[in-house]
Design brief:
It is a single chain. The protein is an alpha/beta fold. The protein is built from 16 helices and eleven strands. It has a five-stranded parallel β-sheet. A four-stranded parallel β-sheet has the order 4-3-5-6, sandwiched between helices.
Length: 366
């Protein structure tokens, strides 16, 4: 960053921090929903420069973290079949299931391959017509359109050996569930920038202000954007008028991305989904539509899955609901580390426990 630009950023940051301190009159808990925000906040040391009254808590916005063990166990069961190739994003590899992980299965001979796009899995299916390629479709509204596009691409190519195992999730129903839970106390949301770029900011989040009277700001990922969003939340609290604001206008439009949503909902439909730590929420997931059932692993490839067990002592569920912090988990940094993760929140780069471990003593740095 050029010197002048860096100085200007520093001055703006100082000003925002000063205003945040001035407006902070009582304890407030703001939830950053998105795992990318969690990492950005830690990396820049933002927690350390906020007044003690402002607590930032992580939410359920890390897709790998909220994927339940039952899904992992199903993927592991598929990976043990001789004619199956599991295609997955790298983060899923090390997440512990009930008794194994995809990484362990791979070490023992399973064909588990990392892909960087769902379309890579389609190409894999084309290259291996004698094998069944199952893509682990994990992620929020941001990644679901590309998974849907992969299904459309497989259909166009006439593939009979490409399948998706959908664990896609929708963010707004999870926020509604958190606000209804008596144990969760949230005074405002830093809404996820990437998800909002797809779903938009008006209709999907209106319930936050109309039903729950909770301030909400769509936030970008640069330190200055996050500070500005915190300031905007505080201003709403002080004015006593909760509203939806967009602090990430350079990327997020009010109506989101209708083209991406059209692709998404041509293949998927909303369905109940199981969230780690939150439970089953109606309308919070995406299931493959009946008209595309030929690509739905659950429908086409029945498999016996072991009985699901949760890791003993792991408090990932509470972390994802924002009711505790990783530091309060007795396993944190002892039995559970990034090298030996006990729960999913310690695996993903967007996981709250991994961020606390890596940046826990981070310093303010733009
Ligand atoms: S530190 Fe590990 S065991 Fe504890 S909540 Fe996080 S992932 Fe679970």
């Amino acid at each position: 960053m050029p010197k002048m630009q860096a100085e200007e950023v520093r001055r703006t940051a100082d000003l925002l921090v000063e205003q945040i301190h001035r407006l902070s009159e009582r304890p407030l808990r703001f939830m950053e929903v998105c795992g990318t925000h969690t990492v950005a906040i830690f990396r820049a040391g933002i927690r350390q420069i906020l007044p003690p009254e402002i607590e930032l808590v992580s939410g359920p916005g890390c897709p790998v973290c909220v994927t339940p063990n039952q899904y992992l166990d199903t993927a592991i069961a598929y990976s043990r079949q001789q004619d199956v190739i599991i295609a997955t994003f790298g983060d899923m590899l090390r997440v512990p299931g009930s008794s194994s992980s995809l990484q362990r299965e791979k070490a023992e001979g399973a064909d588990v391959r990392i892909v960087y796009s769902p379309l890579d899995a389609v190409a894999m299916a084309q290259a291996h017509p004698d094998r069944k390629v199952i893509f682990l479709a994990v992620g929020f509204e941001t990644t679901a359109p590309t998974a849907a596009a992969a299904v459309l691409s497989a259909q166009k190519a006439g593939l009979k050996n490409f399948f998706v195992l959908s664990a896609h999730k929708l963010v707004p129903p999870a926020l509604a569930a958190l606000l209804q839970a008596p144990e969760t106390k949230v005074d405002g949301f830093l809404l996820p920038g990437h998800v909002s770029a797809i779903i938009g900011i008006d209709a999907p989040y209106r319930f936050l202000t109309e039903q729950f009277h909770t301030p909400a700001v769509v936030a970008g990922f640069e330190p200055l954007e996050i500070l500005r969003s915190v300031f905007m939340l505080l201003r709403q609290v002080q004015e006593g008028v909760p509203r939806l604001e967009n602090a990430y206008g350079k990327v997020v439009r009010t109506d989101g991305n209708p083209v991406a949503r059209k692709v998404l909902y041509s293949v998927y439909e909303t369905a109940a989904a199981e969230w780690r730590g939150i439970g089953s929420l109606p309308g919070s997931g995406l299931a493959v539509k009946e008209s595309y059932q030929a690509f739905d692993a659950v429908v086409q490839l029945p498999v016996t899955v072991e009985k699901t067990r949760e890791p003993v002592g792991c408090r990932c569920g509470e972390v994802l609901r924002g009711v505790t912090t990783p530091a309060n988990c007795p396993l944190f940094g002892k039995l559970c580390t990034p090298d030996h993760p006990v729960g999913s929140c310690m695996v993903s780069v967007e996981g709250s426990c991994a961020a606390w471990y890596k940046y826990g003593s981070g310093r303010w740095q733009l």
